[in-house]
Amino acid sequence: MKSVTYSKYGAPEVLEIQETEKPTPKDDEVLVQIRATSVNPAEWYAMTGLFLARLGGGLLKPKDSRLGVDYAGVVEAVGKDITQFKVGDEVYGARSGAFAEYVCVKNHIYLKPTNITFEQAGSVAVAAMTALQALRDYGNLQAGQKVLINGASGGVGTFTVQIAKALGAEVTAVCSSQNVELIRALGADHVIDYTKEDFTRNGKRYDVFIDIVGSRSWRECKRVLNPNAHFVIVGGKKGKVIGPLSHVINIRLAALGSSQKVAFFVASFKREDFLLLNDMLKSGQVKPVVEKSYPLEKISDAMRHLGTGHAKGKIVVTIG
Ligand SMILES: NC(=O)c1ccc[n+]([C@@H]2O[C@H](COP(=O)([O-])OP(=O)(O)OC[C@H]3O[C@@H](n4cnc5c(N)ncnc54)[C@H](OP(=O)(O)O)[C@@H]3O)[C@@H](O)[C@H]2O)c1
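A: This is the predicted complex of the input protein with NAP.
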C-alpha cells in the first residue's frame, strides 16, 4: 500500500510516498481503506522536529516514520471478534499512521454520518475533539455564557465556533477580513475582524476565552475577562524550539495571582466525546469546513498550506 513516510526532520519536502506492507487486522481490529485524512499542526511539529517533539519522537531522526491521525474511509475487513462493523461500512475516527491507504483500528472507529462527505469526516478527529474539550472541560462553558474565540477561522476555530453555539453560548469570534462571512455563516453572534478592530479595547467582557492563536499578551487579554473567567490556551505561535509552549509559559507566569483561571491542555481522544461530536455532526449543528483537498501525492503541498498559518477551516488529503 502507499504510505507517507519520513526519515529525517525538515520542511514538507522530507515527506515521501512509499510502498509499505498492507496491515492485517488482529481479531479485535478493523481494516479501513482510507479515503480522506487531514493535516494538523501536530504533524507539522513532528515533521519539522520541534525540540519537544524530538524528546519523545527521536532526538536526531524520527523513530516512527509514519504520520497522520484523522481518517475517514470504508471497512475492508474485520477481525473475528468484531461485531459492530462489517465490510463496506463507511467509518471515521482517529488512528496514528493515517497518511496511508490502510490502517487497522481498534479503538476510535465510528460510523460516518451520512450527511457528511469522506473529506469532511476525515477532518474531524483532532480539531473537533480539541474544540469540544477546550470549551466544555477547560473553559467550563455553560449555556448563556459569553465566549470569545481568538483564531476562529482555522481548523480548530471553525469547530469551536459551531460547538460553542451548540452548547448554548453567545459567541464572539476573532478572524481576518477574508473570513468574516464564513464565521458569521457558522453561527457566530459577533465577528471581530482583527485587521480592523482591537478586541482587547472594545470594553466587552467574556466568561470564557478560547485562545487558539496566541496573538496577544495576558495583559491585553485580561482586559476582556470577567473576574471569574476561564482562559483556555489551545495553541500559539510556531516557535522553533518549544513551539507554542513559550506562549503558554509567558501567559501562565503573567497570570499568577489573577482571579481568572488559566488552563492549557492537550486534547485526548475519548469515546464518549466522539459520540457527542457524532450527534452534533448528524444533527447538522456542526459542519466541518474544508478549504481545500490535496491528493496523497501532494501531501507536501497540503503541509505547506497548513504551514502558512492561514488555513480557512481544514486542509484535507484524499486517498485513492
Ligand atoms: N492543545 C491541543 O490539544 C491542540 C490541538 C490541536 C491544535 N492545537 C494548536 O492550535 C493552534 C491552531 O491549530 P489549527 O489546526 O486551528 O491551525 P490552522 O488551521 O492553521 O489555523 C490557524 C488560524 O489562525 C488564524 N490567525 C492567524 N493569525 C491570527 C491573528 N492574529 N488573530 C486571529 N486569528 C489568526 C488564521 O486565520 P487568518 O488567515 O484569518 O489570519 C487561521 O485560520 C495551533 O497552535 C495548534 O498547535 C492545539
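Residues 51 and 59 are 8 Å apart (CA to CA). The pocket of NAP is lined by residues 40-41, 126-127, 130, 150-151, 153-157, 174-176, 179, 194, 212-213, 215, 234-236, 244, 265-267, 306, 309-311 (CB under 6 Å).
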